[in-house]
Amino acid sequence: MKILLDTCIVLWAAEGTLPPAAVRYIEDKTNILLFSSISIWEISIKRGLNRPNFIVDPTCLYNELLRIGYEELPLTGKQTLIISSLPEIHKDPFDRILLAQAAYEGIPLLTADRVISQYPGSIIYVRTN
Question: Which end of the chain is less congested by CB atoms within 10 angstroms, N or C?
Fold first, then answer.
């Protein structure tokens, strides 16, 4: 199964601090793990703002994700059109784009964000505790 990873999941996978519930999906060799170009953009922006959870070098992360077999999901204009149909549950533009990408591609979004988990559609919510 193809699974799009939320930015927090991408970061935790890089740090080796994934919640146990997420490890099951990441280590399942039958899953095709995708990261969004938007996640790399988000990490780049928030690292530049010195956000404490975004200290990883985005270039190194990008290269490592590809090296270990994750697939990049680039953002397309057609994917962004879905954003206008999303309910106004979450205001974070990065999360809304990830939700739109997952919806357009017909794949689940793996997240640990409780707010994202409130959206309709294929969301895999994993608890952090």
Answer: C
Contacts 24+ apart (CB under 8 A), 82-91: 86/119, 87/119, 87/120, 89/115, 89/118, 89/119, 90/115, 90/116, 90/118, 90/119
HSE toward the beta carbon, residue 50, CA cutoff 13 A: 0
What span, in angstroms and rounded, lies between the C-alpha atoms of 50 and 30? 36
Distance of CA 46 to the CA centre of its chain: 15
Rounded Cα–Cα distance for residues 63 and 109 (Å)? 22
Q: What is the CATH number of the domain that holds 60?
A: 3.40.50.1010
Number of compact structural domains in the chain: 1
CA pseudo-torsion sign 26, 29, 32, 38: positive
Averaged pLDDT, groups of 10, the chain, 129 residues long: 97 91 95 98 95 91 95 96 91 94 97 94 90
Neighbours of 1 (CB within 10 A): 12
Which of left, alpha, beta for 126 (phi over 0: left; psi -120 to 50: alpha)?
beta
The predicted model scores a pTM of 0.93
